[in-house]
């Protein structure tokens, strides 16, 4: 029994199609069929039944699938340890995220993935989109990045996965006159007093350019503050702010705040970039898990 045979089995089991399976592992369909026939002859069983519209695993195929997955996973882990010379490297996935990722669906799904794998952990670096552009995209120190694709210059050699489209939102105190609205246009808030976080310059510039596209420059304080202090200003009804909806809904949860959708601003796309997932034994599995977790939300 050879590794190539198991990889072919897993590809067919995943895609339920010989043609799609062959494409996924970059071999011809005839070569894939040859590998599966060889494996079936060696085991003395039939693993798949081919129909006109689909390929279906047999009872034996279903039974051995989890074992094949574990064998290939262990082989990947062994190769990773040998390649890096470090068992710690094999147990740690390095991920860069935008600031305040904890107030987004990304954090929940990262934690759930880590909980499923004993001895494995994720090292997370919260940073600006500019830092990802200037550092991580160039030297591949990070395996995975999360951010908003409109704020990146994504290198052509990296795979990227749009996860969820999010509108811009306005956050105000519930006593503010605008709190009676569920949606609003930027042109209707031109006279408001804003406070934007400057820790991510690309996101800050996005807020400014969104307002300018609506025909005005926002009235801003010069404070260099983070979201926590902005929250206190809004709680006192002294300021309002703009934020991606997926962050605002998780951060401004108190009954003192009203999160309002901004309908005429360009939305942002929460995106995952796989810089070097193959370098880690769990990298590909993490990418697939995140895509699956967000699948119902993309474009929502």
From TrEMBL:
Alphabetical UniProt keywords: DNA-binding, Transcription, Transcription regulation
Organism in which the protein naturally occurs: Schaedlerella arabinosiphila
InterPro entries reported in the protein's UniProt record: LysR_HTH_N, LysR_subst-bd, WH-like_DNA-bd_sf, WH_DNA-bd_sf
Single GO MF annotation: DNA-binding transcription factor activity
Protein name: LysR family transcriptional regulator
Coiled-coil regions listed in the entry: none
Organism superkingdom: Bacteria
Any Pfam family matching the protein: LysR_substrate
GO cellular component, one term: protein-DNA complex
